[in-house]
Amino acid sequence: MKQNILLVMADQLRADYLGCYGANFVKTPNIDKLRNDGVLFDRAISPSPLCVPARASMLTGANAVVNGVLDNQRWLRPDRKACGVKTWPEILVETGYNTAAFGKMHFYPWDINEGFQERKIAEDKRHILLKDDYYDYLATFGLEKKHASHLNGYYENKGAVIGQFPEEHQVDRWVASRTCEYIDNYKSDKPFAVMVGFPGPHCPYDPPQKYLDEIDEDLLPDTIPGTKDSDKFRDYFIMANKLPWNGVDYTDFEESHKKKLKKHYCALINQIDFEFGRIIESLKRKNLYESTTIIFTADHGELMGDYNLMGKHYNFEPSIRVPLLIKNSRMEKDGLREGTVSLTDLFSTILDVAGVESYADPDDSKSLFSPESRSSVFGATDLGYMITDDNWKLCRHTNGAQMLFDLKNDPTEQNNLFNDAQFNDKKNDLDKILISRLTKSIMRSNDEKLVNDLGAIGDGGFEERGWQRTYPKKIF
To answer: Contact 19/25 with Cβ under 8 angstroms?
Structure first.
């Protein structure tokens, strides 16, 4: 019998801010319990640490270059189905699953389904003008989404505020409630595949006071210092955050600001853990817990003041490392999987749970049930490219910044070895892999333009006048 599938994705949650990853400054018992019942992946990487590219790649099992989704202003091509490109929920529907999505998905247009037969939508907390399902819900109580900049202390505290709604109307509570309703009312004989997208702990950092009171400031982690390399991104970072979507000026960014932001961020994490626990309880009430594969992860991390930066987008470890926990009857309990894996591996893993063979390129997506470890992960956004393995990372950026880090001996990436001659061999080895993956991805991104897989000569009527090539050529 096929397992149900529950994929829970928090927005902008870094791995080392969960108890099961060693954090003693948050309270995440429900997420931590999932580790007891399943496997924790100690270095899961978001290859494109930005909301939309990360989600597009996870849905399709293809990297951001192949998809053409390298920033938050782009989405999957509208003719992708004609090219043979399917999302994992589309594939699961074909194999007999009921699919549903609750919360933030970050699709364009925002209300399309991309294979989910049912959606209850609460998009990005910054998308205040979207008339999504959460907007309609708030309206029934005489409430409306607002930017959060009207709240006390928003600008001086760099976006750290107390939430504008009572806890019972807060967006992560709403998402969890819609998910619980779906599970509680589920009656089909078919298995379900549900994706839950919590809008938190993404900025604005706006927890209810209740969760803020749980945080002990004395336990909050130290900030990773800025470097000459991270300074190369400061101007872009400051400019981008001054834009209306955020409106915060990080030119003056003191440790006191960072401390307050961490406290608010941790409070949002505590709330997400509580809401995740509610979903788990719904599964148990329906006797579906044991028959459901549960995956908990995030689309990308959060710098949270490290390197004098906030948010994501940059290839430093707090930005690219995400939590990944999986409970499945084929995986050991209380397990630890060492080594680097990719967020895009979820495409092939979900298909594996459903008993479907993945057509994804294993460089981009391979089932996490496979005992074979990854040699490396290739990543890309509009800011540049990255190749990383268990111990090393090479980055080449569009602003000219080039970085090589020995992660084993320098986990906080303070010492850039790119121009150190004694590491030239390592740099060149990684560079070869980076260029190979990039070139291969560029070619794959244009496969629908193929005239003939084996060459045009001798291909039927190719030599005759009026011959027409097939377009788009199926990619898969």
So the answer is: no
- Intra-chain end-to-end CA distance of the chain, in Å: 28
CATH of the domain at 127: 3.40.720.10
Residue with tokens 């989600």: 55
Please report, for residues 25, 208, 209, 274, the alpha-carbon distance to residue 213 in angstroms, rounded to integers and kept in the order given.
12, 9, 6, 15
Domain that holds residue 43: 4-376
Which residues have CB under 8 Å from 389's CB, separation 6+? 340, 374, 375, 376, 377
Q: How far is CA 409 from CA 240, 258, 391, 392, 415, in A?
A: 32, 26, 8, 10, 10
The pTM assigned to this predicted structure is 0.97
- 200 contacts: CB under 8 Å, gap ≥ 6: 10, 11, 125, 171, 172, 268, 269, 271, 272
Interatomic CA distance for residues 96 and 111, integer angstroms: 23
Q: 302-314 pLDDT, tens per residue?
A: 999 999 999 999 9
In the prediction, which pLDDT does 457 show? 57
272, part of any domain: yes
**How would you classify residue 159: left for phi > 0, otherwise alpha for psi between -120 and 50, otherwise beta?**
left
Interval 26-68: pLDDT, tens: 999 999 999 999 999 999 999 999 999 999 999 999 999 999 9
**Cβ neighbourhood burial of 241 (10 Å; 0-12, 13-18, 19+):** buried
- Mean of per-residue pLDDT scores for the chain: 96
Residue for token pair 């090219």? 83
CB 330 within 8 A of CB 39: no
Q: Would you state the pLDDT for residue 392?
A: 98
Q: How many domains does the chain have?
A: 1
Would residue 382 count as lying in a domain? no
Residue 455, pLDDT score: 54
Give the single-character DSSP code of 19. G
Look at residue 177 and tell me if it is in a domain: yes
Residue 303 and residue 309 in contact, taking contact as beta carbons nearer than 8 Å:
yes
Q: How far is CA 244 from CA 21, 239, 249, in A?
A: 34, 11, 11
* C-alpha pair distances (Å), 462 with each of 447, 448, 466, 469: 19, 18, 9, 8
391 belongs to a structural domain: no
